[in-house]
Amino acid sequence: MTVKLSTDVTLQRFGVTAADVIAVARHDARIEISPEVLEQLISVRAHIDALASSDTPVYGISTGFGALATRHIAPEDRAKLQRSLIRSHAAGMGAPVEREVVRALMFLRAKTLASGRTGVRPVVLQTMVDLLNAGITPVVREYGSLGCSGDLAPLSHCALVLMGEGEATDADGNLRPVPELLAESGIAPVQLAEKEGLALVNGTDGMLGQLLMALADLDELADIADATAAMSVEAQMGTDQVFRPELHEPLRPHPGQARSAANMFGFLSGSPVVASHKEGDGRVQDAYSLRCSPQVTGAVRDTIAHARMVATRELAAAIDNPVVLPSGEVTSNGNFHGAPVAYVLDFLAIAVADLGSIAERRTDRMLDPARSRDLPAFLADDPGVDSGMMIAQYTQAGLVAENKRLAVPASVDSIPSSAMQEDHVSLGWHAARKLRTAVANLRRILAVEMLIAGRALDLRAPLLPGPATGAVLDLLRTKVAGPGEDRFLSAELEAACELLESGAVHEVLQPYLSRG
Questions:
Q1: EC number(s) per UniProt (predicted)?
Q2: What's the pLDDT band for 12 if we cut at 50, 70, 90?
Q3: 222 and 140, same structural domain?
């Protein structure tokens, strides 16, 4: 697959979509730069060169940075100024972040460089793209960004590699000397000129890249949550009637709720388990964790939709400071502030925490003989001798508890920096990092529910699940055995999670998903 950086405005202002970002970050799609982009960069660069040769101080071109912006930099020191900026700002600490995050970060920065609003020379953009196409990944550390003035430290670690310095891994993930990696791929280190160092580091690309990947993951996990909820409804001999369409969109027109209800109603269609107790069942209503599943998962869907609107707008942005306007004017601005992205990252973390919470409550009901409708305690083969799925719920509860802590917003905090010049920051990078953890935890939580609901459905034999939930159960059984004596449970939980992460479960659900 090839992704093209162009000035085509038919899809986005600068021709890049969320799918493009995912393709580059996760699937190593190659990137091409259209000739018109390179021509535009040459034209815009002429404005920067003219300002660099004038006596008028311009931020980022002939002055220092941040609180040091009052210092005028002599022409002979300006190349050193750019190098010093990158070296000093590459100040991250902690574990390296994931390869896909770095690739998304770099591609999004390349997208902005291609916009013609940053004033860089074509060689800077071309070198960034060449690194991505060669599979060279700068080592970006976990801590360093405050989410204002852009993701400065993460982007600086990337820019350092463009200069032939810093740390990087090859396409196979091996840490190797940067000069060796560049030479092997025929890439010459960039000698940065005026404005270019700042243009490489002043964007919200890190937090935006992580938001786009979280949205892609959550689209899939929302469907998975509908499926595991349907499996739990069947396993607990619940009713499908509360998911009828006339109870949702006409009465409470939240689109996410209607879609989740349609999914669950479809998943339970044709279920012999559900049909077995439609008559003679004395229960009037199922518990909230069963009956209200579409309301909760649907609210998550609507939160995703809001976050996607913000992400789409940010994706169409060209963020730099100072920025080059179409007139050629170079002017300061505050567009690097990450508040819009930080808010929705935190909003999603809240939704993710609650979705995991209701899934855990459904799971717990299946293990309690007082509430599970005649299932053995903890779904054990010989309760007392065997513990069954008891501790799987402990693991799930621990993940839910962690996600509740991760739901505490980062964006309400701010720590001033740069001698009070940068006196309010978004902490959007921190919001993005905790959301990534929360999404991974949610996947594990739903894997536990799928595993336990699957065992409960097996214990309902000879009654069978419906076609959709049965397809999920059949897939699960290709990796995890059915009920029996206690055995090594961690490996089975990991296998169930891998089925979700690989996309295999979502694939078997495709024929049964609502397209509303």
A1: 4.3.1.3
A2: very low
A3: no
